[in-house]
Amino acid sequence: MRPKVYIARRIPFPHIEEIGRYCDVVTHEGDESPSRDELIKNLRDKDGILCLVADRMDREAIDAAPYLKVISTMSVGYEHIDIAYATEKGIYVGYTPDVLTEATADLAFSLLLATARHIAFGDRYIREGRWRISWSPTFLLGRSVWGATLGIIGMGRIGKAVAKRAGGFNMRVIYNDLVRLAPEEEEEMGVEYVSFDTLLEGADFISLHVPVTDKTRHMINEESLKKVKSTAIIINTSRGAIVDEEALVKALKEGWMAGAGLDVFEKEPIPPESGLIGLDNVVLVPHIGSATFEARTRMAELAAKNLLSVLKGEKPPCLVNPDVMAIRPLSQVKMI
Ligand code: DGY
Q1: Which residue from 93, 23, 18, 19 is spatially nearest to 61, judged by alpha carbons?
Q2: Do the domains 101-284 and 4-98+293-333 match in fold?
Q3: How far from each other are the two terminal CA atoms of the chain, in whole angstroms?
């Protein structure tokens, strides 16, 4: 019997079509997430699902899917999936790390430059017909990126890729993470480990690269924002939940810090009434960290491979929950 698979979005990449060679596929044809009812209804008879970050695969969704063997998310983040429960139920969870690292680091650095040099404001200024004086000594003064101190919170794959880019701008890189890198790696990368508070107090730019956990949720809050330099700029390409947005708006309005470049928000899409929207010292982009042809093509390829591997009874290239193999061995999920 061919496996039944639900693909929770229109994903027009050749590797996704490959799934149809082996499985009976139902696709949610649209760019928006399926409604909760549609998701639950479609999961009832499925062996696999290919989902995205906006599709909540929680206990209720997993319970609605008695035959489910694999959840493959086309994302590096997997906080939308109840990993512990999926593991308990013998469901393999695949994700797509590495392939989006460089694209996301590029975006973090673009936001850093754009915020430091008021690029988005300048663009709006011209389009709105407000450019009247050709050149003024004090107009739109930004902050120098060259030679500044960059504080990276979370020195994983993406944090490291951002640190590499900082080298090209002659920046001093300090970092904080739960786990410190080996001294040889620190030396090779030219980065210095510091405490969280030292990073907040010393960095000109702070870039966030941690996943959402109970420890990292709102780690940037009123208390931490009071410690940053009044000239500091915060960049967030990780997850909105890392930053207490209300506190950030207050800090930006009251001048505790200079600006923020944000790709991710506590609520996405960002509500029109968000205090961030009216601020000129922020650059906002709509969760596009991995949005390059190259990265998305490779994410689709990896998500398809993860899904098909499990259904073929093979270990997927990127498995979030290897413990699942002891609970339900690959031989028991093999259908192809
Ligand atoms: C991810 O992969 O987790 C991103 O946030 C979506 O590209």
Answers
A1: 93
A2: yes
A3: 8
Dihedral angle, C-alpha 189, 148, 209, 13, nearest 10 °: -90
Q: Are the C-beta atoms of 204 and 233 separated by less than 8 Å?
A: yes
Q: What is the mean pLDDT of residues 268-282?
A: 97
Determine the atom of ligand 1 nearest the C-alpha atom of 73.
Answer: 2
The per-residue pLDDT for 311 is 98
pLDDT tens for 3-33 read 999 999 999 999 999 999 999 999 999 899 9
CB 232 within 8 A of CB 204: yes
Exposed, middle or buried, 178 (CB in 10 Å: 0-12/13-18/19+)?
Answer: exposed
Give me the CATH code for the 101-284 domain, please.
Answer: 3.40.50.720
Give the C-alpha distances (Å, rounded to integers) separating 117 from 122, 150, 260.
Answer: 9, 16, 12
Determine whether 218 is an active site residue.
no
**Amino acid identity at 30:** G
Q: Where are the domains of the chain?
A: 4-98+293-333, 101-284
Catalytic residue among 88, 186, 268, 314: 268
Q: pLDDT, tens digit, for every residue of 192-205?
A: 999 999 999 999 99
What's 4-98+293-333's CATH class? alpha beta
**What's the 120 CA to ligand 1 centre distance in angstroms?**
23
Q: Which of 239, 245, 296, 301 is catalytic?
A: 239
Q: Which of 28, 287, 296, 298 is catalytic?
A: 287
At residue 93, φ and ψ (nearest 5 deg) are -120, 120
Q: What is the pTM of this model?
A: 0.96
Nearest alpha-carbon partner for 263 in 233, 245, 283, 241: 283
Ligand 1 proximal residues by C-beta, below 6 Å = 53, 75-77, 100, 289-290
